[in-house]
Specification:
The structure holds two protein chains of two kinds. Chain A is α/β, with parallel strands linked by helices. Chain A contains twelve helices and twelve strands. Chain A has a seven-stranded mixed β-sheet with strand order 2-1-3-4-6-5-10, sandwiched between helices. A five-stranded mixed β-sheet of chain A has the order 7-9-8-11-12, with helices on both faces. Chain B has a single domain, classed as Rossmann fold. Chain B has ten helices and seven strands. In chain B, helix 1 crosses helix 3. Chain B starts with 5 loop residues before the first helix and ends with a helix. The model of chain B has no long low-confidence stretch (mean pLDDT 95). Classes of the chains: A alpha/beta, B alpha/beta.
């Protein structure tokens, strides 16, 4: 993919990139691909998919639990099923169906949760997905992925289609998604992706917070602090090898996610870190056991400290305390 | 073609007696753990008619792509379902008593297609959706296989069931049959007191299902009901049943939903089941 194509993709946002670009291509030579939506075909930009593969798109109506069950029935009969709606509904409202069919029965289903975090901030807390990582990563057998930008969303979707494992893909951000990956790259599943060198601290971020972490590292660099930045696109299974190396190398770990701190990506890092003698301290950036007042996504993130400036400040403060 | 002859009905009534005897044997074997007797005894004839006649299945080819699929959504029918699978040759008869054994292959409602267990259910209201997915795929493949989902009436309180009822009619899944074991009792008592269901048949008709009512303990009537299908709508069979059917001291009593059975109770139940069949 050229850099111009990557910029075009980013204008579509993560969701647009997945449904207008990745999935129509994936379905091209795969008779067993299905795409299930809960009345969000138009919003998700599925018209191209529908035109190319009308028999592979099934609209279940606004019935997320039924959608997961139907996906399971199709998967048991040999389909590779992508099922999608807002992250808040697919990973929360239908959590028991996800547990039963993806986690317990390991059905070949790929959940795509869009507008994760507070992208749907103005629709109110009902539409926020700020606990979905906690819920999904608690489930055995389920792979949990989180895209940093539109190109990575495409890569994660392609990877999900290449395995028969059940997968949850968390898409964040809206249209005109900031570009993290300016050039095409080979996606390596289950491995932390290093985006910036540094030795004073490490910032591990996921989803929309990756671009904020990179900006935070720039701010810190201006103050003479060099922070490394990693993209944790695979939250489960955890890259234990990569983390072990990180714990031995950096004096301070900062984790950043558009999610509750409790049970999130940072918690996954901390759970693993707890087994290490002399492991570095950790600063958690995320929603701290709270819902903010509703407003624009940027407003909510700002209120809750999910910004480059706050990540930089907390990192800098943290280094002073060591 | 379903054989609706009276000879066949009689044969299936005999099979029902065997299944009931297996059910109480299994209940006794479960000891003080207890087991789901009431809701198993109510669907014995449904199971024998399905496994003895209606389902197009072969225990020698349990994963034949064109086999009929049967899923009990109400897994509280395990004491009738496993014996029916044994009757159909999927499980050795002697293994039935191990249905609660730690680590056993029949324990905890597992999914084991190789012995005819198509799905691991247990949480109410989920299996109809799964059946819809299966029916959609079978139709796409041009398979003649049908999908049968057995639900309890108490289970109809679950919202997902009605999402599925809507979707199956919307997609005109004529290869799908849902069966309601209408035994009128859930854990806390009469379904009409706990959460009103009637007029049940009218509800399914209004949602677009081809709906047939029958006696759930009359094998001839069940055969007639299963034969009465539509070619452009899913089929609903409402089988009117009695919870605990066949054992006088269990019939219509909610406490037998899940209960242990004493040796004395077992002997009386056995005598009644054998006696009933001789009448």
């Amino acid at each position: 993919m050229t850099s111009i194509e990557i910029r075009t993709l980013s204008r579509l946002g993560q969701r647009g990139a997945v449904f207008t670009t990745a999935l129509p291509a994936i379905a091209e030579n795969r008779p067993n691909i299905k795409l299930l939506t809960a009345d969000l075909a138009l919003l998700s930009g599925m018209s191209r998919f529908k035109a190319a593969h009308p028999e592979k798109l099934i609209n279940i109506g606004i019935a997320e639990q039924n959608m997961i069950g139907i996906a399971a029935g199709l998967a048991m009969e040999g389909d590779c099923v992508f099922a999608t709606t807002y992250a808040s509904f697919i990973a929360v409202r239908s959590l028991e169906q996800v547990r039963q069919h993806l986690s317990h029965l390991k059905c070949n289903i790929k959940l795509i949760g869009s507008s994760a975090g507070v992208q749907a901030a103005k629709s109110g807390v009902s539409h926020w997905a700020t606990e979905d990582i906690a819920f999904t990563r608690a489930l055995p057998n389920l792979t949990v992925l989180s895209a940093a930008d539109a190109l990575e969303a495409v890569k994660l979707t392609e990877y999900a289609a290449s395995t028969t494992d059940p997968v949850y893909i968390r898409l964040s951000g809206g249209l005109n998604c900031p570009v993290v990956y300016k050039e095409d790259f080979d996606f390596v599943p289950n491995k932390l992706k290093k985006l910036r060198e540094g030795s004073d601290a490490v910032i591990i971020a996921t989803g929309s917070m990756v671009v904020e972490a990179l900006c935070a590292a720039d701010i810190l660099s201006g103050k003479g602090i060099e922070a490394a930045v990693y993209d944790m696109h695979t939250i489960k299974p955890l890259d234990k090898e990569g983390l072990s190396e990180i714990f031995g190398r950096y004096p301070l770990v900062v984790t950043a996610e558009e999610h509750q701190i409790s049970g999130g990506m940072g918690s996954a890092v901390a759970e693993y870190k707890a087994g290490f003698r002399n492991a570095p301290p950790q600063i958690f950036i995320g929603f701290n056991d709270t819902f903010a007042d509703a407003g624009s996504p940027a407003y909510v993130r700002r209120c809750c400290g999910l910004t480059a400036e706050n990540i930089a400040e907390r990192t800098s403060d943290g280094l002073h305390c060591i | 073609m379903i054989d609706c002859s009276s000879e066949n009905a009689k044969r299936l009534a005999e099979m029902s007696r065997s299944i009931r005897l297996d059910a109480i044997d299994m209940a006794l074997a479960s000891g003080s753990n207890g087991s789901h007797l009431g809701g198993s005894l109510s669907c014995v004839e449904i199971m024998s008619v399905l496994y003895g006649e209606v389902l197009n299945i072969d225990s020698k080819q349990p994963e034949d792509p064109d086999r009929d699929r049967f899923i009990p959504s109400k897994n509280h029918c395990v004491l009738a379902h496993l014996p029916a699978l044994a009757e159909a040759g999927f499980i050795p008869h002697e293994e039935l008593l191990e249905f609660q054994k730690d680590g056993g292959r029949l324990t905890g409602y597992p999914m084991r297609k190789e012995i005819g267990l198509e799905y691991s259910g247990g949480s109410l209201g989920m299996a109809l959706s799964v059946g819809i997915g299966m029916a959609l795929k079978l139709r796409e493949r041009g398979s003649r296989a049908r999908v049968y989902i057995l639900m309890g009436d108490g289970e109809l309180n679950e919202g997902e069931v009605w999402e599925g009822i809507m979707a199956a009619a919307h997609y005109r899944l004529s290869n799908l049959t849902a069966i309601i074991d209408r035994n009128h009792l859930s854990y806390d008592g009469d379904t009409e007191d706990v959460m009103h269901l009637e007029p049940l048949a009218d509800k399914f008709v209004s949602f677009g299902w081809h709906t047939v009512c029958c006696s759930g303990h009359d094998t001839a009537d069940l055969l007639r009901a299963f034969s009465d299908r539509s070619d452009d709508a899913p089929q609903m069979v409402i089988a009117d049943t009695v919870k605990g059917k066949g054992v006088s001291f269990m019939e219509n009593l909610p406490e037998w939903h899940h209960h242990s059975i004493t040796q004395k109770q077992y002997e009386q139940a056995r005598a009644e089941i054998i006696g009933e069949a001789e009448i």
